[in-house]
Amino acid sequence: MAPIKHKALINVDLGEGYGNLKCGPDEELLPLIDIANVACGFHSGDPLIMSSTVRACKARNVLIGAHPGLPDLQGFGRREMKLSPEELTAITIYQVGALKGFLDAEGVKLNHVKPHGVLYGMMCRDLEVAKAVMRGVPKGVPVFGLAGTKMEEAAKEEGVEFWAEMYGDVKYSPDGMLVIDRIKKPWSKEDVEKHVTEQLTTESVTATDGTTVHLPVKDYPLSLCCHSDSPGCVEIVKIARAVANRFNEEHGYS
Questions:
Q1: Which among 16, 60, 130, 232 is most buried, taking Cβ atoms within 10 Å?
Q2: Strand 162-167 relative to strand 143-145, pairing
Q3: Tell me: the pLDDT tens digits for 126-155?
Q4: Mean pLDDT, rounded, of the chain
Q5: Nearest-CA neighbor of 115 among 75, 83, 139, 88?
């Protein structure tokens, strides 16, 4: 199999606190990552947190994308909901627009949109859901998603640029879908390194049943996602960063 043709970048979900509640160690993660997906208020995040997260990313030269989710603060956007296509488009426009206001205030470009949690999973399985969300993405802005799923198909149909993702702290089911946990489970350092290395070097992953699943990254730009609410997330991201750096150096991706 030919090697992946693009540099592996690291993205992490940030700004996922709410009010006085803090979610992840964003300040410790920022020096380790290339791209941030910033919560936009529906699954988590609020105006002050969005504003401070944008400023912190700008100071570290971290690219910033919108991370819209389902309107479910209590469930952290990880409980499935039934919304009409019109609602899905509207909540995407609403959340992306909210973040873009803070980006505009800081003179920073919106780099991408990456749906959050169960909304992401719903888009992987359901073409109509995926298309409805894609219609809420500003023209010319890429969407991060899982290649080989309805997300990729919807992006093509709606004329949206697509970036492929791999995951450092999420398991895959035998059909190549993500196993989205309501509450993140811990990973050992060895398992994280094996999980990330396998994906980047073989373009495949060992699924929960032990079978090997192909990940059709194709020629898409590539980003590896980790989560700020995973137990031990700083160590997880450090390992993912090291594996990605090694992969990039071996393939001459500067």
A1: 130
A2: parallel
A3: 999 999 999 999 999 999 999 999 999 999
A4: 96
A5: 88
Neighbours of 113 (CB within 10 A): 26
C-alpha 146 chain-centroid distance: 9
Scan for tokens 């399985």, then name that residue: 125
Per DSSP, helices labelled H in the chain are 26-29, 47-59, 85-106, 117-125, 127-134, 150-158, 189-202, 233-250
Six token digits for residue 53: 């997260």
DSSP three-state, residue 42: coil
Q: What is the per-residue pLDDT across 84-112, written as a single tens digit (0 to 9) for each?
A: 999 999 999 999 999 999 999 999 999 99
Distance of CA 26 to the CA centre of its chain: 15
Q: How many degrees, rounded to 5, is the angle at CA 176 between CA 25 and CA 78?
A: 40
**What CA–CA distance (Å, rounded) separates 224 from 24?**
18
**SS3 category, 136:** coil
3-state DSSP assignment of residue 105:
helix
Structure confidence at residue 106 (pLDDT): 98
Q: How far is CA 6 from the centre of its chain?
A: 17
Answer for the pair 96, 136: CB distance below 8 angstroms, yes or no. yes
- For 143, the enclosing helix (H) or strand (E) is strand 143-145
Please name which of 21, 2, 147, 27 lies closest in space to residue 12, comparing C-alpha atoms: 27
Residue 5 CB neighbour total at 10 angstroms: 13
